[in-house]
């Protein structure tokens, strides 16, 4: 226990009771060790889950129908609108790296979440204002029948400024809120450790529940042309999320930021390069372990692992360094000698990269739900009597699938796997890597389902339509299987990703670990946009309309879906190879923040 925690305990003892500090190095808002009973746990966790639900409601209030807004209000064609949405969504998640960097390096997770949420609310308010005053002209335009007029460069510029402010705000906030939620549970405490594992499933569930309102109520109003109302509702929801987040300020547990990780990585690479001809010792204890006050990495020390042996040279103490250090008598040169824990931090990130790269193709599949699935559904029969079902609202079945599969996974599948493994001496359920592999298999089924539905949609479609909305007699409910498969695959892929990258990232780079999950979605959107562009260019030759023309009834969207199924199968094979190669992170159990008495700073 740290000196700060001991002093705090003495103060409380004078009042007749003793309070227990957390054991994972977490601190409170004032920089003192967090008291277990009065901080974190599910009280703070639930506030963060509700904040996530409201913020996601606001995000999907814009994102779920953005492709229709671009075609109806800004009058872009189908392919351009799908590409614009993919690029925007990609930007949302690439901004997660920005948020993770400033969080892990300088601001900490709480401050980063607060600042980016303010940007988010501002962007949503600007979008609502721009739509109401400039973009929706004539009044009532933007529905199925009334297209909007021409817009000036200033008006279109204002629209893109607002939506990319939303991208920056939501993207920068997202990885940090997930990690801040996980921070509320002490993994050194048995009860809280199990709650931390459960938190990621509930986090993804609340994120989907938040989008449920957007995909039904808001989606309906926006589809009927009431875009400004939908955008103002999104802005109000984001503002409520911000107020709720700030309301839990005194309860949250925090971790100190750890400085610029790029400098730490560069030091290891430079030091290893300078010692290219130095032999590495056989005994692990001969590597430089760092000084007692060395703060190059925070949290638990990382133990030496085999692999990437070239980098081990950065932790080899040479005779030249001993002479220089004796002459200077002022510590080692960090660009020539690094603690083995710092070297392992770099190794850890390098091991994560192949797994991360294999998740990008899955994100290409996932992003079709917000673009081509909507355009496909819009060209199907969307009416029941006089009531019209907005195509984008079909993602409700994705959300219901997510909720159902999370329940089945936690209550049925995982206990069954544990029971089966227990017979073989292993009490663990499905690992994160195994669940991600299952997610890829289900993604293949989703694309095959979408392709088969498209074949039948074309069979019952009219080629003479102009806009082709509702031009096929095939009912939109035939899309339910592809949405359900996507939802099931999300639970196995994205929930497992959040758990995996959070658990396997070094203690000083937890937000970066969550950002890797978001960034795979980002690159998936960019790859999707690139694939769509290539397919259009290659398939639209010799006066042929191509696979994804403006009139889907003259194209072959089914072939694009089957192409994605094939690419996902190839990706699955590569993923299995990478998963077998991967080695888990190895930690010592010492927590610097609460165990090193002389190293804690209030």
Automatic annotation (TrEMBL):
GO terms for cellular component: membrane. The chain crosses the membrane at residues 42-70, 90-107, 114-136, 156-173, 193-213, 225-246, 352-374, 394-413, 433-453, 483-503, 515-540, 560-582. It is a multi-pass membrane protein. It is found in: Membrane. Keywords: Membrane, Transmembrane, Transmembrane helix. InterPro entries: MFS_trans_sf, POT_fam. It comes from the Eukaryota. Belongs to the major facilitator superfamily. Proton-dependent oligopeptide transporter (POT/PTR) (TC 2.A.17) family. Belongs to the major facilitator superfamily. Phosphate:H(+) symporter (TC 2.A.1.9) family. This is Protein NRT1/ PTR FAMILY 7.3-like. It comes from Anisodus tanguticus. The lineage of its organism: Eukaryota, Viridiplantae, Streptophyta, Embryophyta, Tracheophyta.
């Amino acid at each position: 226990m740290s000196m700060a925690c001991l002093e705090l305990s003495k103060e409380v003892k004078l009042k007749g009771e003793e309070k227990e500090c957390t054991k994972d190095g977490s601190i409170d808002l004032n920089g003192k060790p967090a008291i277990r009973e009065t901080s974190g746990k599910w009280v703070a966790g639930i506030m963060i889950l509700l904040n996530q639900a409201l913020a996601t409601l606001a995000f999907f209030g814009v994102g779920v129908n953005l492709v229709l807004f671009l075609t109806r209000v800004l009058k872009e064609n189908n392919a351009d609108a799908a590409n614009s949405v993919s690029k925007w969504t990609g930007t949302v998640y690439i901004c997660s790296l920005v948020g993770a960097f400033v969080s892990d390096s300088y601001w900490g997770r709480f401050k980063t979440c607060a600042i980016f949420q303010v940007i988010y609310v501002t962007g949503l308010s600007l979008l609502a204002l721009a739509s109401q005053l400039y973009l929706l002209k004539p009044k009532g335009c933007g529905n199925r029948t009334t297209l909007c007029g021409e817009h000036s460069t200033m008006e279109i510029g204002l629209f893109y400024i607002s939506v990319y402010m939303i991208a920056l705000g939501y993207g920068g906030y997202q990885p940090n809120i997930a990690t801040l939620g996980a921070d509320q549970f002490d993994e050194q405490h048995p009860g809280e450790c199990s709650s931390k594992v459960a938190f990621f499933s509930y986090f993804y569930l609340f994120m989907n529940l938040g989008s449920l309102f957007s995909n039904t109520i808001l989606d309906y109003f926006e589809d009927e042309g009431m875009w400004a109302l939908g955008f103002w509702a999104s802005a109000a929801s984001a503002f409520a999320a911000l107020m709720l987040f700030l309301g839990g300020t005194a309860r949250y547990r925090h971790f100190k930021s750890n400085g610029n990780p790029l400098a730490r990585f560069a030091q290891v690479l430079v030091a290893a390069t300078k010692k290219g001809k130095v032999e590495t010792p056989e005994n692990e204890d001969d590597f430089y372990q760092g000084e007692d006050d060395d703060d190059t990495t925070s949290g638990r020390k990382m133990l030496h692992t085999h692999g990437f042996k070239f980098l081990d040279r950065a932790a080899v103490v040479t005779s030249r360094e001993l002479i220089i250090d004796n002459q200077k008598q002022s510590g080692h040169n960090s660009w020539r000698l690094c603690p083995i824990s710092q070297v392992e931090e770099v190794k850890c990130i390098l091991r994560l990269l192949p797994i991360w790269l294999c998740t990008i193709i899955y994100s290409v599949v996932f992003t079709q739900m917000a673009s081509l699935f909507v355009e496909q559904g819009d060209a199907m029969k969307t009416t029941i009597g006089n009531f019209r079902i907005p195509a984008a609202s079909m993602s409700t079945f994705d959300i219901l699938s997510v909720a159902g599969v999370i329940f089945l996974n936690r209550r049925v599948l995982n206990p069954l796997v544990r029971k089966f493994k227990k017979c073989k001496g292993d009490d663990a359920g499905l690992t994160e890597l195994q669940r991600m592999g299952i997610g890829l298999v289900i993604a293949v089924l989703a694309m095959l389902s979408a392709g088969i539905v498209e074949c039948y949609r074309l069979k019952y479609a009219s080629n003479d339509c102009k806009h082709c909305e509702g031009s096929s007699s095939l009912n939109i409910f035939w899309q339910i299987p592809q949405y359900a498969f996507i939802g099931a695959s999300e639970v196995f892929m994205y929930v497992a990703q959040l758990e995996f990258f959070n658990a396997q990232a070094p203690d000083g780079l937890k937000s970066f670990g969550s950002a890797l999950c978001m960034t795979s979605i980002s690159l998936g959107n960019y790859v999707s946009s690139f694939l769509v562009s290539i397919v259009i260019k290659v398939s639209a030759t010799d006066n042929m309309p191509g696979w994804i023309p403006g009139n889907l009834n003259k194209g072959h969207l089914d072939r694009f879906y089957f192409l994605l199924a094939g690419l996902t199968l190839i990706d699955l094979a590569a993923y299995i190879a990478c998963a077998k190669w991967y080695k888990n992170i190895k930690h010592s159990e010492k927590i610097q923040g609460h165990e090193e008495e002389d190293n804690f700073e209030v």
